[in-house]
Amino acid sequence: MGVKGGAWRRRTGVVLGATGLVVPLALTVGAGSAHAATACTAGTGPYQKQVEKFLGRTVDGKQSTGDCQAIRSFQQTHGITPSAGYAGPLTWRTMDTMLQQRAAGKTPNKAGKCPVNKGRIACVDLTRQLSWVQDGSKLVYGPVPVRTGRDGAETRTGAKKVYQRTLNHWSTLYKVWMPYSQFFDGGQAFHSTTKSMWNPPGSGGCVNMRPNDAKAYWNLLKNGDDVFVYGRKPGT
Questions:
Q1: Which whole number is the average pLDDT over 12-38?
Q2: Which region is the signal sequence (predicted)?
């Protein structure tokens, strides 16, 4: 298948507190950059203050040229359209998901929603767009951000098992390569993609992963291993 400032802000990204969870923000827009070629004129959005805080801007709820450029850069980085620099619902929802991922830290299963009596298991939390591998209650890998099924093609919830592994699967439906594919439910699989994990609206049902994370899952899992999917992807 086919495949949301603070002391934690950095100049080139937001560190989300868990291994591998680094969100590229491209906060600064140089005068000679491609982003500056077109005037940024979007007005104040309904989530202006929240977005300003996330981006480490002055939180006054009033759109400035600098705010507009920073918001637009974030949108372009993650494929949010239109990339006009407007602090709208989709942009804030993406940032809010990122904040929830940061809050997960190294205890993504704190609420105990992913079974701890299965041994090795890959957990997928659709609500926070997070996945990790645990062995009992011990965290083995992650949590890492994932990109799951869009509205109308949701990643199905429930208890699953890895049933087919293909190092570089070719999707006849979407005409794309799916590296490190590990299928767990009727054509839905973990696999690598080069898209941003925060790129809306989502996949065609698969659990998209960054290349290094998909490779790690490939090395950690095998046919017959358990997968548990729960929650609901924002926007579905």
A1: 46
A2: 1-36
Question: Do 91 and 71 meet the contact criterion of CB atoms below 8 Å apart?
Answer: yes
pTM: 0.85
Which residue type occupies 185?
D
Q: Give the CA distances from residue 180 to residues 9, 83, 93, 143, 193, in Å, rounded to whole numbers and listed in that order.
A: 32, 31, 29, 18, 10
pLDDT band at 170 (very low <50, low <70, confident <90, very high): confident
Fold of 106-230: L,D-transpeptidase catalytic domain-like (2.40.440)
- 169 has catalytic annotation: no
**Catalytic pick among 35, 78, 169, 191:** 191
Identify whether 114 is a catalytic site residue: no
Is residue 6 pLDDT above 80, yes or no? no
CATH 2.40.440.10 domain residues, the chain: 106-230
Selecting among 40, 114, 123, 206, the annotated active-site residue is 206
Name the nearest CA neighbour of 74 among 33, 24, 37, 38. 24
